[in-house]
Amino acid sequence: MKSSKILWIISLIPLLLSCVAVRFLPDKIPMHYDMAGNIDRWGSKYETFIFPALIIFFSLMWTVISAFYKRMATKTKEEKQQVEYENNVKFLNLAAISMALAFGVMHVIFTYSSYVEAINNASKSSIDISSVVCVIWGIIFIILGNFMPKVKRNGIMGLRTEKTLSNDDIWRKSNRFAGVTLMIAGLAIAIQALFVSGIASVLVMLGVIILMTIVDLIYVARL
Q: Which secondary-structure segment (H or E) carries 55?
């Protein structure tokens, strides 16, 4: 099965699940939480369609970008460039599928959480949403970091600086290094979310991302 079909199957599942869920959800469900996990806004159960709509929008965006590289691969006469474009398409499809799957899982968890909170008339989230988000993003980083060294020089994805975009060898070395740091960062983010809860978990994740970015830029500057 082509990756584009897999992407759209994964992207449409949350929408189908929402169509089923609204038959069982109460009319009013929690739709927003403060930093402490307290419910600070209740909304219509039909708002559960917002997240699936966003997933479809982003999948459409990834599809358009992927189509651009596919068109470039068919137009170029140089075999080297054709291989590079095709490799970039593979990475784009992997990124798109990973994000659609991650957001789909988040949607299922959040919808179930809202259902439990609504029927129990709760005032606080039944799950640690921040930790769940951090674990999922950590896993995404690990997956993308593993494939990042295969991305060829381009202006859309990868470790893009003026220096890396100017030379194939620098691009290769810097993105191979960035792939390793991205996997390490993803592992650190996922693990810390198992021990750190609430907004503190998100702050730790942001700190890890900033540190990773600084380390990557220092490495590129030394090439």
A: helix 50-75
Q: Where are the domains of the chain?
A: 1-124, 128-223
> Closest by alpha carbon to 68, among 45, 89, 99?
89
The dihedral of CA 180, 211, 88, 140: what is its sign? positive
Task: Compute CA 98 distance to the chain's CA centroid, rounded to the nearest angstrom.
Answer: 6
The amino acid sitting at 105 is: V
Contact 70, 18 (CB under 8 A): no
Q: What is the pLDDT of residues 40-82, one digit of tens each?
A: 889 899 999 999 999 999 999 888 888 887 787 777 777 666 7
What does DSSP say about strands 28-33 and 39-44: parallel, antiparallel, or unpaired? Answer: antiparallel
Q: Which two tokens stand for residue 100?
A: 């659609």
pTM score: 0.78
If you write DSSP's letter for every residue of 191-219 in order, what string do you get? HHTTT--HHHHHHHHHHHHHHHHHHHHHH
